[in-house]
Structure formats: structure tokens, C-alpha cells
Write a structure and sequence with these properties.
Length: about 130
């Protein structure tokens, strides 16, 4: 079977499909500058989107890890219950969260508790002042 021929939407030539790429609403030769540029742009866009998602995930992991350790340390909620919650709300982040908690410890240190209570207290004061 001969290779499939398609028409390039840039130069109009019939060309072996394998030498073309999807471009706008058809196919075009790989050699055209505008095609190369469009591919480069697309790659860049995908890369930026991926970086954005990674940054969002990192933030979510940081805040979830803090929350889990606080609930476990201060309110005594068992880790298994907290992990069950993450499994439902952020299943894709569960393994990263577990790894981060393994690194930092399930329980917050006394220093961490003090710092977070002070921060929280300052925040409450600020919020209630704003409400007056
Ligand atoms: Zn062409």
C-alpha cells in the first residue's frame, strides 16, 4: 500500500502524510516556518500549563500537610481518618502528602505548635479588629 498522501494547507502540494503535521484545520509540511513556530508555541503553552499545575499542587500539598499535622497534633484526629479525607478530596496528591509528612513527622513539635498558635492568634485579633 502506498503511503497516504495529503494536501498541505500552506503550499497546496500533495505530500506523504508522514512528512506533515496537524496545522490549523488541516495538515502542512513540517518544513514551513509558520508550522515550526506554531509547534514551538504549542510546546511552550503546554510547558507553562504544566508548570502552573505543578505550582498549584505544591501549594495544595503545603497547606494540606500543615492542616493534617495540626488536626492530628492539636485535636488528636487519627492519621488514618485524615488520610481517608485526602483520598476523597485530593487522591492525586495523597502519595506526595504522605511523603512530606513522613519527612516532617506526623506530630508538630512544641515550637511549631507555639508558632502556629501565635500566628493564628494574631490573625484572629486582626480579623476581629477589622470587624469592629
Ligand atoms: Zn507545504
Amino acid at each position: 500500500m502506498p503511503p497516504k498522501q495529503v494536501q498541505c494547507i500552506v503550499c497546496g502540494e500533495m505530500i506523504n502524510k508522514r512528512q506533515t503535521l496537524a496545522y490549523e484545520n488541516g495538515r502542512a509540511c513540517r518544513k514551513h516556518e509558520e508550522v515550526i513556530e506554531a509547534i514551538e508555541e504549542m510546546r511552550e503553552k503546554i510547558k507553562m500549563e504544566k508548570q502552573g499545575i505543578e505550582a498549584e499542587n505544591k501549594l495544595a500539598i503545603i497547606s494540606l500537610v500543615s492542616m493534617i499535622r495540626a488536626f492530628h497534633t492539636i485535636r488528636g484526629i487519627p492519621m488514618i481518618v485524615l488520610y481517608e479525607h485526602v483520598k476523597r478530596t485530593h487522591p492525586d496528591l495523597l502519595s506526595d502528602i504522605k511523603a512530606e509528612i513522613a519527612k516532617r513527622g506526623e506530630k508538630m513539635s512544641q515550637d511549631e505548635v507555639t508558632t502556629s498558635l501565635l500566628t493564628y492568634g494574631a490573625l484572629i485579633k486582626k480579623v476581629s479588629k477589622g470587624a469592629e
